[in-house]
Amino acid sequence: MKIAILPGDGIGTEIVAEAVKVLKALDLKFELEEAKVGGAAYDAHGHPLPEATLKLAKESDAILFGAVGDWKYDKLDRPLRPEQASLGLRKHLGLFANFRPAICYEQLTHASSLKPELVAGLDILIIRELTGDIYFGQPRGRRVSPDGHFPGAEEAFDTMRYTRPEIERIARVAFEAARKRGKRVTSVDKANVLETFQLWKDVVTEVHAKEYADIALDHMYVDNAAMQLVKEPKRFDVVVTGNMFGDILSDEASMLTGSIGMLPSASLNDKKQGLYEPSHGSAPDIAGKGVANPLATILSAAMMLRFSLNQPEAADRIEAAVKKVLAQGLRTPDIYSEGTTKVGTREMGDAVVKAVG
Ligand code: NAD
User: Fold this and answer.
1) Could you tell me if the CB of 334 is within 6 A of ligand 1?
2) Which residues are known catalytic residues?
3) Could you write out the DSSP letters of every residue in 159-210?
4) Which of 13, 25, 49, 324 is the most exposed place for a label (fewest CB within 10 A)?
5) Residue 186 beta carbon below 6 angstroms from any ligand 1 atom
6) pTM of the model
7) For 305-322, what is each residue's pLDDT tens digit?
């Protein structure tokens, strides 16, 4: 099992170090190889995703990724900015399925912005299609408007598009995931207005009828889904949607759980090769202070063991260890509340290592 370790920038290096410690505490054999990515790679090699890093990522079974970005790179041309590394890895590895679980841990129920009874026991999984939709559709650009309300005015346009096979494969990923959980899928679309999402709805319905009759499927318009996520989040099990709607809904869902420092994510291709990273960014405001919460990255490593490395028991061990340290009252500042014990990044990592052993 070969794992590419790409810590990146800001708190990325601090939190990935803790996740690596936890991986090493398991009695499993891994080959771990580290490379630079993002701003750190730009500083060292002049590019956010150097050839050597991409090669390592391609030949690994999984990638453990920290975060990239810092305000100091904001003046660079877009192709050289740290964030291009994430987009490049998604594109080159064909990482089309993004998994974002939103789990509200019992001890952190009060940290949510919603009433505790709405989020207690919350465990939903948002599956976002990651390589299609309006973010990648061509043509796009700027031009002189040929028609519409202001012909002759400057305009910008993007193209929303999905092919049948793209919808089929993400639908299958969602139904397969639901089979291992609560056996319910909500497909989110905007079929009442958009042709692209009428096709989406038709194809999801067909795949369901032909292959997944054991799973309960319902369809929901994206505006209603955004509302239901804050009104009654526990009604959902697996939510599957396109790239743009998934981008927005997964961030909304992540906040239900209280802290962005707790949320892992996985992006997989059709060979189950995956990139695993926390849902948050490089947090330049707290980088180097030793206070970042490493749990999202540690939980991402657990997802890696489950989805790409076929080690579900090891994944369970890590997740149980995280619950244990929370039950012990250990908290990094982002999840701290009165009566608990404030710890730093390293202490939290050490506690998980101890609980795993
Ligand atoms: P951010 O997620 O880095 O930080 C938002 C807030 O959450 C900050 O106050 C930060 O201190 C806090 N935070 C984030 N992670 C935390 C953790 N593990 N523990 C405790 N607190 C945590 O978002 P931002 O500030 O908007 O972006 C900072 C940089 O990160 C930007 O350059 C942005 O482009 C980049 N970014 C990268 C990724 C990625 O690599 N996948 C994702 C989002 C943002």
Assistant:
1) yes
2) 135, 190, 223, 247, 251
3) -----HHHHHHHHHHHHHHHHTTTSEEEEEE-TTT-HHHHHHHHHHHHHHHH
4) 324
5) no
6) 0.90
7) 999 999 999 999 999 999
